From TrEMBL:
The keyword Acyltransferase applies. Keywords: Acyltransferase, Transferase. It comes from Deinococcus ficus. PROSITE patterns: GNAT. Pfam families: Acetyltransf_1. One of its GO terms (molecular function) is acyltransferase activity, transferring groups other than amino-acyl groups. InterPro entries: Acyl_CoA_acyltransferase (IPR016181), Bact_Acetyltransf (IPR050832), GNAT_dom (IPR000182). This is N-acetyltransferase. Residues 3-173 form the N-acetyltransferase domain.
Length: 173
């Protein structure tokens, strides 16, 4: 199987919704939002979110099966901050790969696409993200791509009786 990454658009809203909902459901401690909250969003709002703009782009990782059919298996959103004092930075958000597609390079391909795109934004000097302490594999992925922890927030997220820490990471471009 080969991985192909491309920027998503409004026409990808339903597959994006499917992947986001599935990953929020299977990994509830990985994200700040819940599957239930996401499920309440109208598809039109999801389409707006995945439509690229000057400061936002969502990428999708597609795996080709033996039959040649491609399926969306991973997502990542890159958002450049537009306030003058923060325009030098962008946030990596909502990184998710379907459980059954993990270990096949989708996460690495998404991160490479985000880094390449970030370098195309003039004046951008750093990328930032957050990862919960339950997501060791995601943290290793980010570290492989040059991110490093700069701080940890204790008691960051509480869900289902569990208290999670969030590690804040950054990397220069």
């Amino acid at each position: 199987m080969s991985v192909r990454v491309r920027a998503l658009g409004a026409a990808d809203a339903q597959p994006y919704w499917d992947v986001r909902y599935a990953t929020l459901s299977s990994d509830p401690f990985a994200f700040g939002t819940t599957a239930e909250r996401f499920a309440a969003l109208p598809l039109e709002q999801v389409a707006q979110r995945v439509t690229p703009s000057d400061t936002r782009v969502s990428f999708g990782a597609f795996l080709s099966g033996p039959d040649g059919q491609e399926a969306l298996v991973g997502i990542l959103t890159l958002v450049r901050l537009d306030s003058p004092g923060f325009a030098h930075r962008a946030d990596v958000l909502g990184v998710a790969v379907l459980r059954e597609a993990r270990g096949q390079g989708a996460g690495d391909a998404l991160m490479r696409a985000a880094l390449d795109h970030a370098r195309s934004w003039e004046g951008l000097t750093s990328l930032h993200l957050a990862v919960t302490d339950t997501q060791a594999a995601a943290r290793r992925l980010y570290e492989r791509h040059g991110f490093q922890v700069w701080g940890t927030q204790p008691d960051a997220i509480r869900r289902a009786g569990q208290v999670l820490q969030e590690h804040f990471m950054w990397r220069p471009l």
